[in-house]
């Protein structure tokens, strides 16, 4: 029996030693290729319409207002500017200058060219000078020529209507140019 045990144990050793290992083969091929190009082409210059600078100078003693604007499209750029004279500012400066020179009646006459000042003076009982007359004489002069005043006021109102119509037309023209 001992022989059989030795025999089986040798066989068992031989069978363990002669067993082939288990081999698993795995192959994978992976290729990643990335190609990219980027191209930028500028076909038109950047918008460059620049409005002229017509700003009001705080140190200036001028009665002007600067207005400027610019419009730029892909094809055309336009810029423009202008100045406007502010009439009330001129009236105040002229009245002050006349008053400083001692011409008080002339200074009041300049201020009375403003319709609001004229009405306020009449309501206060101190009418504006009329043809060199002041006080009660001026009041009689103004009252006798009321019809002249009404016609003059009507003419001013028509001028204001024309100005507002022209301004509205310019606004429409500017809007059309903007849409181009």
- Main β-sheet, in a few words? 2 strands, antiparallel
The domain count comes to 2
Low-confidence stretches: none
Q: Report the average pLDDT across residues.
A: 75
Percent of sequence in beta strands: 5-15%
Q: Rounded to an integer, what's the Rg over CA atoms?
A: 49 Å
What is the helix/strand order? HEEHHHHH
What is the approximate shape?
A: rod-shaped
Number of helices: 6
What order do the strands of the largest sheet run in, or round the barrel if closed?
A: 1-2
Separation, N- and C-terminal Cα atoms: 115 Å
DSSP, total strands: 2
Helix/strand-derived class? mainly alpha
How much helix, percentage-wise, in residues? Answer: 40-55%
Briefly, what is this?
With 180 residues, the chain is mainly alpha-helical. Helix content is 51%, strand content 10%.
Summary tags:
180 residues; 6 helices; 2 domains; 51% helix; single chain; mainly alpha
Notes on the protein architecture:
With 180 residues, this protein is mainly alpha-helical. The protein folds into two domains: 51-85, no CATH class; 87-179, no CATH class. The chain is 51% helix and 10% strand. It has six helices and two strands, in the order αββααααα. It has helices at 2-18, 87-100, 104-111, 115-123, 136-144, 146-179, and strands at residues 64-72, 77-85. A two-stranded antiparallel sheet has the order 1-2. The longest helix has 34 residues, at 146-179. It starts with a helix and ends with a helix. 5% of the residues are buried. The mean pLDDT is 75.
Task: Describe how the helices and strands are arranged.
Layout: H1 2-18, E1 64-72, E2 77-85, H2 87-100, H3 104-111, H4 115-123, H5 136-144, H6 146-179
Antiparallel strand pairs: 1-2
Helix pairs in contact: 2-3
């Amino acid at each position: 029996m001992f022989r059989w045990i030795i025999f089986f144990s040798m066989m068992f050793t031989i069978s363990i030693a002669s067993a082939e290992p288990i081999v698993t083969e795995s192959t994978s091929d992976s290729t990643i290729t990335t190609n990219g190009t980027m191209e930028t082409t500028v076909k038109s210059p950047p918008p460059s319409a620049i409005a002229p600078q017509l700003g009001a100078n705080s140190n200036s003693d001028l009665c002007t207002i600067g207005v400027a604007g610019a419009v730029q499209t892909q094809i055309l750029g336009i810029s423009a500017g202008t100045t406007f004279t502010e009439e009330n500012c001129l009236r105040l400066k002229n009245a002050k200058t006349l008053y400083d020179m001692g011409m008080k009646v002339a200074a009041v006459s300049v201020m009375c060219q403003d319709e609001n000042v004229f009405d306020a003076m009449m309501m206060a009982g101190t009418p504006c000078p009329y043809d060199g007359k002041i006080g009660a004489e001026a009041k009689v002069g103004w009252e006798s020529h009321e019809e002249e005043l009404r016609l003059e006021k009507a003419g001013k109102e028509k001028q204001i209507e024309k100005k507002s119509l022209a301004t509205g037309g310019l606004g429409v023209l500017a809007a059309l140019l903007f849409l181009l």
